[in-house]
Amino acid sequence: MNEPRQETTPWYHDISRYQWLVLIVASLGWVFDVFEGQIFVASMNEAMPSLLPEGSKEGAVAFYNNIALGAFNLGGALGGIFFGMLSDRIGRKRAMTYTILAYSLFTCVSAFATTWWQLVLYRFLLALGVGGEWAVASALVAEVFPQRARAWSQSIFHASSVLGTFLAVAAGSFIVGNRRLAFALPLLGEGWQLTGWRLGFLLGVVPSLLIIWIRVSLREPDLWLKTRASPSAAKGSLRELFAPALRLRALVGVGLATVGLATFWGTHIYGKDVFRQAYAVQTGAAAPDVLKHAEMAGMLLVTIGGGVGLLAFGPICERLGRRGAFLFFHLGGLAASLLLFQWVSGLAALAVVLPVFGFLTLGMHAGYAVYFPELFPTRLRSTGGGFCFNAGRILVPVILFVSGWMRKDWEISLADAATLLSFLFLVGALLLIVAPETKGQDLPA
Hints:
Number of strands: 2
């Protein structure tokens, strides 16, 4: 039976110190996870041009950046599925340490790339850990918190991602964009320099320290231990996800994640570039350092709105249900994208619109942490959540490749390419017709 509703009791009532600890540790893992992804976004206008032949056109740079973004999403897909299955077999605690080690190591190694394909390869390898960490951490939080607090705790967990983006913005402004940070390292080749964007990637080693805290402070959830003790239950089976009872749930999850990830990498992240372009036009500024600060200011505005949107998903889905909340953000994301990329101009207007754009194009991502663990039983919770969130990444590289190819060969503008991809929000809205509603229900046993 479902837990009785307690409308007058705050969701955080009687949450234990250990439950808060789990939320903090899982969120920190996700913060650094997102930093590893966003440090490339904050530095791709510096990193990729330095690895291509001098004088490469903007369209060519955009093409190779999209290849790198596509490789990141493909790696995230494979890592999320693999580590999700591994987590259901060996436990949340051990699997999380492996994912953090993977993304810390390969982000750090990215600093030493000397060609575009090396950077793409390292983005793929670090993404294995990035995709896996979310799958494991979201299952851990879902299993530790009670039903009445699940939507709120998962929204807080996913909203912590904006702290990772803030760290990337800070690194982009003060490290990546600082042209004075360049150190010659003759041992790595004549003329090789440790420039700002390389130093930004070197920061990726810091999250590995979190592994010590995880090993000392966390224990496996009781739900997982109970399932592990059952000899008859298969654990971490992709085949079982597509059994008749779960097939629709798995396909709906993959569809929603595909829409969210494709619009994130193809639409959401370019809000900062709109602000940079508007700043250059309105002020006449051309100095790279000045424009970099303008770009990071735009990224900050989008991220602030996105963070509020992620936090808001919890209370919105408690009022409207899971499906209603997704519908609100999908339709709102489309409207905000059309407004930003096709109609708004001027710095003052953008300063108002960018946070709204961030709110509506990012908020539904907290829904994946809330919704996906509710779709699957304990023995498949991390497998199912990891598969849904990350299988969508397999389709995203194709979408981003087409977008980059249109910009390179058809010379379609950034704004028009981002606008075209924003219509995927309508696909997400249509998927909700067949999506099950899980509001107020216990986690499946």
